[in-house]
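input
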Amino acid sequence: MRFAINHITAPKLSHENFFAAARNLGLTEVEIRNDLPDIVGTVKPEVVKKAAASAGVTIISINALYPFNVWSGELPKKAMAFADYAAASGAKALVMCPLNDGTKVSFDDLVAALKAMKPILEERGLTGLVEPLGFPISSLRTKKEALRAIDAAEGGGIYKLVHDTFHHHLAGEIEFFPERTGLVHISGVVDPNVAVDDMLDAHRVLVDAKDRLENIPQIKALIAAGFDGPYSFEPFAEEVHALADPETAVRESISYVSGKL
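output
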């Protein structure tokens, strides 16, 4: 497996220390963010690019353009600035997340957004990583629907899916699309008392033996179907962020997942 790590796994680390931690774990692929921590808003892209090169890591994506499927207001300007930053920092792709507040977004608006974003990505040599969110209030819950829109926008050459094990489980999705997938996000939920429909980002921890999301079966299915891209740790839980030694915790999760395969 190609394990990678998202900066939200250890948001208290500076970008330099985060890149160093990845290398200490034997990883060479990382994801940076524009929220927690906000590297995009606080560090110049040239500085990030130099630090990544010095550490020997590749920035596989920046998380995330939101809400990409509502192409109005400030979003077009924000999308261009975000793409410019990605290109200047050496990032390979932008993660794109849909509106997640209970508001419905039409299929036509989703397609229109993908069409509008396509030349912005193409001009900068970037891939758009579309990540459906499985929450009941999400405006785009399934990968199947995302692919239908990507194809309607004639974006198969520029867009790929993010298969997020958490969102795959929440959406009740059973189909896998390995040939259309560019990145897998992995995290677990271990709280035995939370119902699936009530699971939130705050419940997402590192994957271990108590995981309720069927990460191991999902990963096995992806591998069996031929997916050979990166599996990036993306835990949002404060209990993970507060760890004094996140490296050891991630190393233990890598060992657990690898051992089950």
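quick obs: The longest strand covers residues 58-65.
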